[in-house]
Known about the structure:
By secondary structure, this protein is α+β, with helices and mostly antiparallel strands. The chain contains 11 helices and 9 strands. A 9-stranded mixed sheet has the order 2-5-4-3-1-6-9-8-7, with helices on both faces. Helix 4 (118-132) runs parallel beside helix 8 (191-201), helix 5 crosses helix 9 and helix 6 (158-168) packs across helix 9 (221-243). The longest helix is centred in the last third of the chain and has 23 residues, at 221-243. The radius of gyration is 19 Å and the shape is elongated. The protein starts with 7 loop residues before the first helix and ends with a helix.
Amino acid sequence: MQSIINAWFVQGMIKATTDAWLKGWDERNGGNLTLRLDAADIAPYQADFHARPRYIALSQPLPALANMPFIVTGSGKFFRNMQLDPAANLGVVQLDHDGAGYHILWGLQHDAVPTSELPAHFLSHCARIHATGGKDRVIMHCHATNLIALTYVLDNDPDIITRKLWEGSTECLVVFPDGVGILPWMVPGTDEIGEATAKEMDSHSLVLWPFHGVFGSGPSLDDAFGLIDTAEKSAEILVKVLSMGGMKHTISREELIALSKRFGVTPRQSALDC
């Protein structure tokens, strides 16, 4: 029987976390990643499950996620170590019948627990399931350097930041036409920041936490990673442009409209008009 280590979802998590660390987005134990699975994904690997799965109650029930399995990164775990010991740094969990808590089916060895941002992840999964009809399966949080830098110099206004990112790189409007959500600074790892993030995730696939990092979502690990990577590339360009004295030329509103028509996307109107 094939080992769960070779399962597509374990190997995918290893690749995504390693790539994020190599990008410089996930220093030390910074960042976390969750992927929603189906029962069929984990069914072939029951022989690898813990004989007595640990149960952890959630601070608030999430019936919308009842019985759903996820693969998650662990609390205090370094992304750079995921490839070295997946079973110690990753875990497969499954919510119970009413979403009041979850069992750790595999991984998270030595009494490790899932990321402290799990409330934000689960609430964001609920929001993206609703917003995309179940299409989005991944929530990724990381400390993308240039996106963080922009929150120190731009007004924390979602339309302003969205418009600047669209102008910073042509592909941005195509990749995230729904724009970027943004929160006030909040203490991480709490239900409060999780609820605020999920509210923004109702209408955005990308949400900035000022002076901290970014949350991205998508149907696959590649989609979520690529979304953040695209926004971060634009942010890097903007950081360089701002350091050279600011924009003298940029993509106009009319050109953004032409771009959206060419690729069949509907850009966030308030960002287009700002």
